[in-house]
Known about the structure:
- By secondary structure, the chain is an alpha/beta fold.
- The protein has a single domain, classed as Vaccinia Virus protein VP39 (Rossmann fold, 3-Layer(aba) Sandwich), CATH 3.40.50.150.
- Helix content is 36%, strand content 29%.
- The protein has helices at residues 9-16, 22-32, 53-59, 72-82, 119-129, 151-164, 200-207, 211-218, 224-239; strands at residues 41-47, 62-69, 88-92, 105-111, 130-147, 184-198, 244-257.
- The protein has a 7-stranded mixed beta sheet.
Amino acid sequence: xxxxxxxxxxxxxxxxxxxxxxxxxxxxxxxxxxxxxxxxxxxxxxxxxxxxxxxxxxxxxxxxxxxxxxxxxxxxxxxxxxxxxxxxxxxxxxxxxxxxxxxxxxxxxxxxxxxxxxxxxxxxxxxxxxxxxxxxxxxxxxxxxxxxxxxxxxxxxxxxxxxxxxxxxxxxxxxxxxxxxxxxxxxxxxxxxxxxxxxxxxxxxxxxxxxxxxxxxxxxxxxxxxxxxxxxxxxxxxxxxxxxxxxxxxxxxxxxxx
Length: 258
């Protein structure tokens, strides 16, 4: 799917309300890299920052952070949410065209980005913006077909949701050391599950900004209102007017610049 379909205020505002699982990813990062819970990097870059949730998470372990995104609307929302805090800065840029700062970054995160970029161009740019010995963390996480204690949700997801909203094509390759250009070392790759508690309405809001659903809305096959109504009706018997824990699956790749 063309990334430009995410360049709308509807998507940007929806992204700002996504589950803040990025915080758990940063906590996982500290464990995976054997860093103390109070460790701070001096300067971080968040590539493909979206509406800023990943930048907010990076800020937990950085003195100052910069977020970039290809979509004007995403950066606009970031500035509205975080612009008064001098520890944050944001600007519009492709992932392959991050500006080289006066002081290079000692950590860069890229959440949900790598499937959409020119990989060679991206890594060439990362070589220019990361200081020697700096860390590049490529990560992503997504909803699965699992809800804690509910086989009915799995059936709904597989037999109803994916048939109505098929997953759009994207690259899904897992990088190895052989995929990295000279000057980078793959230090570690981890996978993990995370849980997040939803009521029905917030879960429907979340599902409406999934790439599966957005592709159908942007393609004119269904309106956002129709998609919302279908999800509320079909999921109501599963949620049973109570909170449910949804299972997310994530991965992190830790790449060191030599």
